[in-house]
Design a protein that fits this description.
elongated, 178 residues, mainly alpha
């Protein structure tokens, strides 16, 4: 039997192979970026970091030619996540900081909160608990009210995830009162 993810990968790859047949226009390139991002998501359960990273790099290159800061922020955030999962923490931090810069420049509060969450996770993975705490606190502070209960496309509520990581970081530092 075939999994839904494998089937989705096939369809996204088929769509990407059809794109060169379309006129070279901005909206076609935007669709290509969205397809590369969707492909990377569909590949995630396979754990094939090489293919996922290649899809994200394709999306990044296209997004840079479009000068589309919103999409570039999404790509950078996913690169940060992928690098952290691969154990490439310095690259995860660099991509996370780029995401944070793009979110700040575009006044994208949700991307800003998510950038801090994933940047915090990268710092935590490196053992830099103090910097991680700053990031997690930023996420919690920026997701107030109804946003506290939003997933924003994530598996775990970002506000809850940040609180949990805050507890882990404080435990690592022995600052249990916090």
């Amino acid at each position: 039997t075939r999994s839904a993810h494998r089937e989705a990968v096939g369809y996204f790859e088929q769509a990407l192979s059809a794109l060169p047949q379309l006129p070279e226009q901005r909206d076609t390139r935007e669709q290509a970026v969205d397809l590369w991002l969707a492909l990377s998501s569909a590949l995630h359960p396979s754990g094939d970091s090489g293919r996922i990273l290649a899809a994200l790099r394709e999306a990044e290159a296209l997004t840079e030619t479009l000068n589309d800061h919103r999409r570039l922020g999404q790509v950078s955030m996913r690169l940060s996540i992928r690098f952290r999962l691969m154990g490439a923490h310095d690259q995860a931090i660099a991509a996370g900081q780029r995401t944070l810069t793009l979110a700040t420049a575009n006044v994208d509060a949700v991307l800003h909160a998510l950038a801090n969450l994933y940047l915090g996770e990268a710092y935590k993975a490196q053992g830099d608990y103090c910097r991680a705490i700053v990031c997690f606190r930023q996420t919690v502070a920026s997701l107030d009210g109804a946003q506290r209960y939003e997933r924003f496309g994530q598996f775990i509520l970002p506000a809850v995830d940040s609180c949990a990581w805050l507890a882990v970081c404080h435990a690592e530092l022995g600052t249990f009162a916090e």
